[in-house]
């Protein structure tokens, strides 16, 4: 079976772009990825287009990718639409890897695009309402509330303004972690402060202002223990990756020195595990499978991008990825182990909290950052000597964990 490589990446800035359409954002990201690879559209043998909310926001269902890609000349080849909640883009990336491994072509495109921001705030926030089982949403909400039972919510720690239902999901996870391991709100704030500091050096990030732990704690509340800077914003944006087989790199005359090997690409769905059974969290199991496929362990990882839709997400995921023991994610973050220059730099891009979270593009946005790091092209946010990199991207909720999660390992 052939090795697969990322030969080109492109990403738009993430933010609020009233004057940009899905087609505009897609076109910008794909053009940048093709230019980076040194290829033209006629070299693409297949495309996977990831998007989660365009149907809800605009009423465009069924053929989103065919419509978004045709105007740039991508037509006549297989185009597959991928929707897998916030894990859509990483799922599309894995499918592109599998497409090439199956011998369906030499060169494949994975692209994710999302247009989420709207002046209609009710429409905007309700885009997340179907990310769990809508047939028993009240039962699901109560289960999440029960996760944090026994952790007191201070008065005034819940926002009176509308916010995504998934902030309540993460707050439930956070309070369970606090109750089980003694994690503190200050430790979650340290994650957020670190990611906001990283984003200062990312020109594509939605927010680029550093914040201290005290500033994060003093910010407006969302739902305890989360404050506004601990939560990913609503974002528009797109990201794309061009993948090739090893033989394709030779046939197409590409520069192998800039090609980044896909060492593992794993997708799992959640299970009905007990909440306290952290060792069987779907991301933990996906990470173990990814490490085995790549032939390396967590100690070999130079840099990581993880799904910090809130700061608690990063704490949980660095434990799942094996960087620290279960329950040690908060203390390690407060000690600075996950900042650039620390023991294991996490989210040098600024993460979802600062870089932004256009959900259908997020996973490939992580790939963009890690490819940039592995090439040594990240500038002031560069992790020195980066050799192996890992991305974790989850989406939706089923039971007490994400409905889907992808773990991807890239390396030189």
TrEMBL record:
InterPro entries: Thiolase, Thiolase-like, Thiolase_C_2, Thiolase_N. Residues 4-207 form the Thiolase N-terminal domain. It comes from the Bacteria. Residues 282-398 form the Thiolase C-terminal domain. One of its GO terms (molecular function) is acetyl-CoA C-acyltransferase activity. This is Thiolase. It comes from Pseudodonghicola xiamenensis.
């Amino acid at each position: 079976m052939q090795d697969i490589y990322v030969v080109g990446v492109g990403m738009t800035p993430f933010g609020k772009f009233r004057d940009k359409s899905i087609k505009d954002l897609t076109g910008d990201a794909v053009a940048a990825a093709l230019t980076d690879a040194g290829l033209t559209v006629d070299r693409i043998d297949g495309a996977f287009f990831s998007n989660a909310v365009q149907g809800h926001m605009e009423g465009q269902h069924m053929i989103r990718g065919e419509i978004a890609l045709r105007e740039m000349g991508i037509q006549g080849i297989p185009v597959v639409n991928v929707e897998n909640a916030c894990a859509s883009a990483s799922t599309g990336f894995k499918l592109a890897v599998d497409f090439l491994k199956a011998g369906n072509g030499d060169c494949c495109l994975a692209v994710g695009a999302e247009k989420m921001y709207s002046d209609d705030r009710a429409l905007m926030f309700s885009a997340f309402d179907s990310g769990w089982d809508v047939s028993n949403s009240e039962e699901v909400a109560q289960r999440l509330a029960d996760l944090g039972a026994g952790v007191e919510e201070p008065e005034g720690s819940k926002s009176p303004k509308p916010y995504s239902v998934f902030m309540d999901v993460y707050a439930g996870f956070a309070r369970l972690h606090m109750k089980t391991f003694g994690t503190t709100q200050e430790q979650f704030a340290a994650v957020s402060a670190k990611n906001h500091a990283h984003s200062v050096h990312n020109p594509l990030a939605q927010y680029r202002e550093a914040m201290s732990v005290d500033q994060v704690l003093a910010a407006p509340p969302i739902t305890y223990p989360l404050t506004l800077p601990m939560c990913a914003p609503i974002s528009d944006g797109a990201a794309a990756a061009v993948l090739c087989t090893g033989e394709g790199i030779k046939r197409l005359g590409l520069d192998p020195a800039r090609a980044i090997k896909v060492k593992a690409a794993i997708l799992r769905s959640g299970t009905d595990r007990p909440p306290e059974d952290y060792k069987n969290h779907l991301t933990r199991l996906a990470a173990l499978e990814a490490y085995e496929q790549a032939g390396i362990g967590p100690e070999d990882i130079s840099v990581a991008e993880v799904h910090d839709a809130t700061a608690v997400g990063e704490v949980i995921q660095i434990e799942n990825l094996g960087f620290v023991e279960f329950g040690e994610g908060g203390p390690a973050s407060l000690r600075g182990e996950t900042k650039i220059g620390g023991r294991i730099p996490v989210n040098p891009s600024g993460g979802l909290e600062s870089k932004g979270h256009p959900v259908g593009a997020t996973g490939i946005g992580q790939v963009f950052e890690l490819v940039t790091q592995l090439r040594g092209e990240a500038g002031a946010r560069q992790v020195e000597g980066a050799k192996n990199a890992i991305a974790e991207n989850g989406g939706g909720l089923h039971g007490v964990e994400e409905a889907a999660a992808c773990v991807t390992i890239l390396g030189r």
